């Protein structure tokens, strides 16, 4: 993706987030130079990969297959492993109309996916085989707004604003906006986007960036290079 396109997506996402009554935290608006100057005090943000995340999954077709994310807070795997401390994470996402976030699951993370505003969020579901792999002939059990309900293979949940689904490790899922763009909240256990996203097809988690202009703000995928 071109950096100019990433900058445009950031600006549009910030406008949509504000439209639905949310405001991103102050570090969201730091320039790259400000982030570099404050990297010591921001070490937890950097380690938790909090911040802007825009991906086309390495496919080069953001409008058809892509996702906007902003990680607001993220705990530590060490806390999760010992069963105490900051064991949770929170994100805001934007899924555009008919923009696929491709079929995947997680080994570790459980997550609530919440329609925070906009159009209908469609979540397509499949279960796992005995080894945790994608099973096109299996369903499972999810919790919708606190109520357990079974799902069949390939079933599509349709979540209106305010509605949510709880997905556990092994629930394979893809999602997109139907009838318009959707602002999504994600509340989960500790998030690890480097190792805990398992996709059905061999795709990349992060976009490759072509530096045609300077970045407005850093992506989490920029941290290793810009903040080393």
UniProtKB/TrEMBL annotation:
GO terms for molecular function: isomerase activity. InterPro entries: D-lyxose_isomer, EcSI_cupin, RmlC-like_jellyroll. Keywords: Carbohydrate metabolism, Isomerase, Manganese, Metal-binding. It catalyses: D-lyxose = D-xylulose. Its EC number is 5.3.1.15. It is an enzyme of class 5 (isomerase). It comes from the Bacteria. Its cofactor is Mn(2+). It holds the Pfam family Lyx_isomer. Belongs to the D-lyxose ketol-isomerase family. This is D-lyxose ketol-isomerase.
């Amino acid at each position: 993706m071109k950096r100019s396109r990433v900058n445009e997506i950031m600006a549009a996402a910030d406008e949509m987030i504000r439209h639905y009554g949310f405001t991103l935290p102050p570090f969201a608006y730091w320039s790259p130079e400000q982030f570099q100057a404050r990297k010591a005090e921001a070490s937890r943000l950097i380690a938790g990969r909090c911040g802007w995340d825009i991906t086309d999954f390495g496919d080069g077709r953001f409008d058809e297959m892509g996702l906007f994310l902003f990680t607001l807070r993220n705990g530590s795997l060490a806390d999760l492993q010992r069963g105490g401390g900051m064991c949770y994470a929170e994100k805001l996402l934007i899924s555009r109309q008919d923009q696929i976030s491709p079929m995947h699951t997680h080994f570790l993370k459980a997550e609530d996916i919440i329609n925070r505003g906009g159009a209908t969020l469609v979540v397509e579901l499949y279960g796992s085989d005995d080894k945790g792999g994608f099973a096109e002939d299996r369903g499972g059990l999810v919790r919708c707004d606190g109520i357990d309900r079974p799902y069949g293979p390939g079933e599509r949940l349709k979540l209106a604003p305010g509605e949510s689904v709880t997905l556990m490790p092994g629930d394979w899922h893809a999602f997109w906006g139907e009838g318009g763009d959707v602002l999504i909240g994600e509340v989960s256990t500790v998030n690890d986007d480097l190792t805990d996203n398992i996709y059905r097809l061999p795709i990349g988690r992060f976009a490759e960036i072509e530096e045609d202009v300077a970045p407005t703000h850093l992506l989490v995928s920029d941290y290793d290079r810009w903040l080393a």
